[in-house]
Amino acid sequence: MRWHSTWAFSFLLILLIVALLYFFQRKSKTASLVFSNIDNLKKVAKGVRAHLSKLPLILRLLSLLFVVLALARPQESDTKVNKNVEGIDIVIALDVSDSMLIEDMKPSNRLESSKETIRQFIDGRTSDKIGLVVFSGESYTRVPLTLDYSLLKKSLAQVQTTRNIKMGTAIGVALANSVARIKDSTAKSRVIIFLTDGENNSGTIDPITALDIAKGYSVKIYSIGMGVDGQAQLPYYINAPGGRKIKRYRPMHSKVNEELLTKLAEETGGKFYRATTTKGLESVFEDINSLEKTKIETSSFTRYTEHYSKFLWIAFLLYLVSIIIETFMLRRFP
Fold first, then answer.
1. Lowest-confidence range among 115-124, 216-225, 315-324?
2. Which of the chain's termini has less CB crowding within 10 Å, N or C?
3. Are 310 and 213 in a shared domain?
4. Is 299 part of a structural domain of the chain?
């Protein structure tokens, strides 16, 4: 409830002053009789008329009060907000080859660092559909484009390097699969975030062919090269007596094909990043988050409903009751 014409409340002061003057003036002009002893008069109970004598005046003052409130124009507002959201569709392609287990990024390895950073990225989006594709020597869609971020994060948390798909790094297949997940999107912007720590060494689709497909569907690629190049130690486990597992390491050469990843990004209007630390990877996703912003246009419309008529009706009824009481219940007979 709001009051449109608050200046009307100034009449309340005038109404109060008039009421006080009336009561003081009426008291000074009250007729009186002198009695030598009023003990017997005190024993006489006041009648109904005596109790109601001031009621008409009180009702009229209340009537004037409601007239003032009506003049202040009480209103009830109803605001409607319309949001026009132009979302972005994003497919995250995550490398799950064995090399992602190399322990050169926190909290434990490249894969866990990627998963945690992706989770934070998902938490920062609000109206964008996001899907998840994983790959090594083959590729599959783990989560299609969705707004169910809880489901997406739950599936992401369960991602591991797996022997259920072919070993290797199939960049072309993974990119083509990602494009297939997003090509029919009607969003204003379609983006693939591509994370890998290796070179293309597997798959039936050449990366350049997959790039041409992405360009044909106007899909933007942000490519990220994970980890440090060179000799690394890949962890593996052996079974020990008693069912225990012992971690061992074997040497492995790790190298990111920066030239290919740069080409994928630049020719689609995206950007290539190199992330050799967890902090660096977080900065990459922060940059992508700032580059790919969801456009939200908000417009509001407020409708006001007038309630002054209710106050006028109350004022009229109070005044009418005061006349009825004065005319019929407090009528003076000659």
1. 315-324
2. C
3. no
4. no
**Which of 129, 141, 139 has its CA nearest to residue 189?**
129
φ/ψ of residue 203, rounded to 5:
100, 160
Rounded distance between C-alpha atoms, residue 245 and residue 228, angstroms = 28
| pTM, 2 dp | 0.66
Same domain, 142 and 22: no
- For 29, which DSSP code? T
d(CA 268, CA 30): 98
Chain-centroid distance of CA 123 in Å reads: 11
**Euclidean distance between CA atoms 164 and 207, whole angstroms:** 23
DSSP for 242-269?
GG-EEEEEEEEEE---HHHHHHHHHTTT
Closest listed residue to residue 208, CA positions, set 233, 176, 255 = 176
Give, in order, the Cα–Cα distances in Å from 287 to each of 115, 121, 130, 228, 332: 17, 11, 17, 21, 90
Structural domain that includes position 11: 2-30+44-79+305-329
Q: State the Cα–Cα distance between residues 174 and 331, nearest whole angstrom.
A: 99
Under 8 Å between Cβ of 127 and 159: no
Backbone φ and ψ for 247, nearest 5 degrees, come out as -80, 135
In-domain check, residue 35: no
Judge if 139 and 200 occupy the same domain.
yes
Residues 10 and 124 in one domain: no
Residue 148: per-residue pLDDT: 94
The reply to whether 221 and 313 lie within a common domain is no
Residue 228, token pair as written in the block: 């440090």
pLDDT value at 47 more than 60: no
Question: Backbone dihedral region of 99: left (phi > 0), alpha (psi from -120 to 50 degrees) or beta?
Answer: alpha
Q: Which two tokens stand for residue 12?
A: 């309340």
3-state secondary structure 83-133: EEEECEEEEEEEECCHHHHCCCCCCCCHHHHHHHHHHHHHHCCCCCCEEEE
What is the pLDDT at residue 292? 87
